[in-house]
């Protein structure tokens, strides 16, 4: 392990843990052990982001509170620890007595009053006990892992975020012990050689402590000794786990907007994170990198300071924001875009497991079929959205709406040009639109024929959509198309071409959503 400049930290035994300047990084292993309380069912469920997806894999992100994780954001004396603490919702919570020595997490102390035990919602662990246990465990772990080389993300101090895009990502390899020294020295306002390296800041991000499913991106855990110290939470034991990662910030940090191809539970052990979420349905508005690139799961938008001249559709994106502190857990569903802002000295772990993506690509022979089906559905949805947008733009003020088809026909005939006539059509509800078409075909066949010849691609899409919806009189199409006379076949061919052009335009919008 590299030495800390000027004043390297000295090893401390259990009796030295009363030092008020000591950071609970020494007790973080103990905190990791207690992170598993998210499986014990005593969470507090927060708000859920709304999603347009209805499949189980697109479950709304849920903010929960793992209340029995010790909140160690500051060092306080014993008297302060026994004061009531505020819960997440701001209410007061009476701190129960510390658990009996040797009592396992989740067990009931039979020496306590049964009523008291049953009404205690969440156990709070006294800080001194955690500090002593954590110090001892950290000492053992640090001896075993301090020499392990880990990949550390880095950025210039002037940069506002750690970029995950392939061409912009920066990282260095350091011994884990060096990074821990850097972390502790920075917290206690000591100096360390990493603080002056090329004006850079460092962040231990996505460091694998368990790899259940090795692949080309991660073959084995870097710090497996951590995972040896605690069990996988019960609520995740039936999941097809892929990886568990450790995250440690020294300075306030921010990741760029991206999504993961896994279900994800993020647990904060110390500090605070703010997670900004966008649903998969917002992908087109988030300007992802091209799907063929190595950064396909990253957005090109700086969501903090967006350039709307370059990314105008971003203004249509709908974000939801969650703040998770020590003891909180957040479910980030597979495919949901997220950006994470972390306070200084934040420590967290996250759990990844396979879901929909793995099922889709499991049989390579079926992947092309799935891709075509999904693309067809995306284009269909885009066509429907575009038609809805067209009809919305044609809505007239209340005083200008048409009482019946006669007034609509009159407005159509007196409109100054083709655009004005189309505006009249777009302002009509479906029932009136059908009635006006029939009326024009029967009594104004020349005007009707001329209107169809000059109809825009969008207007043809609206008309043919009403023709294909059904619920029409049996002779309706015969009337509106029969009025075209000798030119009927040629005009119908033009209508088909314009309808196809509309679908091509919608497909182009879908293709752009995969990145350019």
Please explain how this structure is put together.
The chain has helices spanning 28-34, 78-81, 114-119, 127-145, 176-187, 224-228, 356-361, 367-393, 405-414, 418-426, 430-443, 445-453, 457-468, 476-482, 488-512; strands at residues 63-65, 85-86, 92-93, 149-156, 171-175, 200-211, 241-249, 253-254, 263-270, 272-278, 320-325, 328-332, 337-342, 347-353. It has 516 residues and is of the alpha+beta class. It folds into two domains: 14-67 and 126-357, Jelly Rolls (Sandwich), CATH 2.60.120; 367-512, no CATH class. An eight-stranded antiparallel sheet has the order 1-12-9-14-7-6-4-5. The chain has a four-stranded antiparallel sheet with strand order 8-13-10-11, with no helix packed on it. Residues 1-28, 40-120 are annotated as: Disordered.
Task: Describe what is shown at a glance.
This protein has 516 residues and is of the alpha+beta class.
């Amino acid at each position: 392990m590299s030495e800390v400049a000027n004043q390297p930290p000295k090893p401390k035994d259990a009796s030295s843990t009363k030092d008020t300047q000591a950071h609970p990084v020494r007790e973080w292993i103990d905190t990791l052990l207690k992170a598993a309380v998210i499986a014990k069912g005593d969470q507090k469920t927060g708000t859920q982001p709304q999603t347009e997806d209805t499949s189980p894999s697109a479950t709304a992100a849920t903010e929960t509170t793992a209340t029995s994780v010790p909140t160690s954001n500051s060092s306080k004396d014993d008297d302060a620890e026994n004061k009531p603490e505020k819960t997440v919702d701001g209410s007061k919570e009476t701190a129960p007595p510390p658990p009996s020595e040797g009592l396992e997490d989740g067990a009931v102390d039979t020496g306590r009053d049964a009523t008291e035990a049953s009404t205690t919602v969440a156990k709070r662990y006294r800080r001194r006990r955690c500090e002593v246990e954590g110090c001892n465990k950290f000492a053992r772990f640090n001896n075993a892992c301090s020499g392990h080389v880990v990949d550390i993300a880095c950025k210039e101090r002037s940069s506002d975020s750690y970029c995950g895009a392939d061409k912009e990502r920066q990282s260095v390899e350091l011994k884990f012990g060096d990074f821990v020294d850097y972390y502790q020295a920075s917290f206690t306002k000591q100096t360390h050689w990493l603080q002056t390296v090329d004006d850079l800041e460092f962040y231990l991000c996505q460091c694998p402590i368990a790899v259940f499913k090795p692949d080309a991106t991660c073959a084995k855990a870097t710090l497996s000794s951590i995972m040896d110290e605690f069990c996988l939470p019960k609520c995740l034991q039936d999941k097809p786990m892929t990886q568990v990662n450790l995250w440690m910030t020294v300075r306030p940090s921010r990741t760029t907007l991206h999504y993961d191809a896994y279900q994800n539970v993020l647990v904060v052990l110390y500090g605070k994170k703010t997670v900004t979420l966008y649903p998969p349905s917002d992908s087109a508005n988030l300007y992802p990198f091209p799907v063929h690139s190595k950064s396909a799961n990253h957005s090109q938008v700086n969501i903090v300071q967006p350039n709307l001249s370059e990314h105008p559709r971003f203004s249509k994106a709908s974000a939801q924001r969650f703040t998770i502190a020590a003891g909180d857990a957040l479910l980030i569903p597979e495919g949901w875009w997220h950006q994470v802002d972390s306070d200084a000295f934040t420590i967290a772990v996250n759990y990844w497991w396979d879901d929909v993506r793995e099922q889709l690509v499991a049989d390579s022979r079926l992947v092309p079929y799935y891709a075509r089906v999904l693309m067809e559905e995306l284009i269909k949805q885009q066509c429907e959205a575009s038609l809805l947008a067209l009809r919305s733009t044609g809505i007239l003020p209340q005083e200008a709406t048409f009482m019946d088809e006669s007034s609509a026909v009159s407005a159509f005939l007196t409109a100054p040009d083709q655009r004005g006539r189309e505006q009249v059509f777009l302002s009509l509800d479906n029932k009136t639109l059908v009635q006006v078409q029939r009326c024009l075909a029967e009594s104004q066949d020349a005007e009707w024929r001329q209107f169809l010849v000059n109809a825009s691609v969008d207007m043809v899409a609206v008309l043919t959509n009403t023709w294909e919806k059904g619920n029409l009189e049996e002779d309706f199409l015969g009337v509106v198309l029969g009025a075209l006379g000798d030119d009927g076949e040629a005009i119908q061919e033009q209508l088909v071409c314009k309808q196809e052009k509309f679908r091509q335009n919608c497909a182009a919008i879908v293709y752009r959503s995969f990145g350019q």
